[in-house]
Amino acid sequence: MGSGTSTFVIRWINFLTMLLAIAVICFGVWMSTHHDGCRKSLTLPVLALGGFILVISLIGFMGALKNISILLWIYLVLLCLILVGILVFTVLAFIITNNGSGHSVAGLRYKEYQLRDYSSWFLKQLNNTKNWAHLKSCLVKSEDCNNLPKKYKTLKQYKMAKLTPIEAGCCRPPSECGYPAINASYYDLSFHPISSNNDCRLYKNSRTIKCYSCDSCKAGVAQYMKTEWRVVAIFNVILFVVLVRTSSSMKINKNLSFSMVPVNYLLCWMLRKKKCCQESFIQGLKMDCASDLSYH
């Protein structure tokens, strides 16, 4: 790839990344004006992420536009940090979400979830009184449970529904309690529960109580979080591969060719090609470490 083409590619990659960062920041600003406590709790992380991406993009864009060596060095160092961060987060995400799955119940099209099936990290977060108080208030405001009668107008429709993990865990008592359903939002609690599960005692038909204090509700939230984390982890794998491939294949002009050393060195180190890295670093990329790896 020629130096002009490479510089053009770097500029456009960072320009598109800047647009993405601006979109993330706008979303964060929108959340800050929203009255929902759940969205407000994510405002600062979203704004910080958008700002960090924007700063890195500006540094890389200006470095490529003006051929400023120091800016490209800073850009590449930050890029290396992002790669390491993505790698660490992805590994942890897969470890944390490895446990936990739903249990099929006869006569139901959806699954029920049990809190003990999930990782210790989820248990620690969800059993924390302060954390759960905040999450519970968000669940009450979300109207998920209160909307069930609108979605399923008859008892037959409700029994044939495929409820989400949160709806199955927070909006109804566990099936083992044996409470007969009157409609999508009301159960006959005059029956003595046939199970010793504490959730049977905690469930109430009140719109603000339901099963929000139940372990089944926490399990539903854990399943929702697990699904979201898995999606993010898979996206991070793709992002990591794209960033490594892009950074290891870019060539800057002759005066700045050494600027790609940090990324190539990181790539080689992660793949245990230390000798290759040392030669590449010393010779100023006389041999392309990433290209060498493709033949092994």
Task: Describe what you observe in this structure.
The protein has 296 residues and is mainly alpha-helical. It has two domains: 3-98 and 229-294, no CATH class; 103-221, no CATH class. Helix content is 64%, strand content 3%. It is built from 14 helices and four strands. The chain has helices at 3-32, 37-41, 43-66, 69-96, 120-127, 129-142, 148-151, 155-159, 165-170, 198-202, 215-249, 261-270, 274-283, 289-294; strands at 103-104, 111-112, 181-183, 186-187. Strand 1 (103-104) and strand 2 (111-112) form a beta hairpin. The chain is elongated, with a radius of gyration of 26 Å. The two termini are 22 Å apart. Residues 251-267 and 269-296 have low confidence and may be disordered.
Give a quick precis of the structure.
By secondary structure, this protein is mainly α.
Helical content, roughly? Answer: 55-70%
Number of helices: 14
Arrangement of strands in the largest sheet: 1-2
Bin the strand percentage.
under 5%
Largest sheet: 2 strands, antiparallel
- What is the ordering of alpha helices and beta strands? HHHHEEHHHHHEEHHHHH
Structural Rg: 26 Å
Which stretches of 5+ consecutive residues score pLDDT under 50?
251-267, 269-296
Mean pLDDT: 77
Pfam families: Tetraspanin
Keywords: Membrane, Transmembrane, Transmembrane helix
Membrane topology: Multi-pass membrane protein
Family: Belongs to the tetraspanin (TM4SF) family.
Feature tags:
single chain; 296 residues; mainly alpha; 2 domains; two-stranded antiparallel sheet; 14 helices; 3% strand
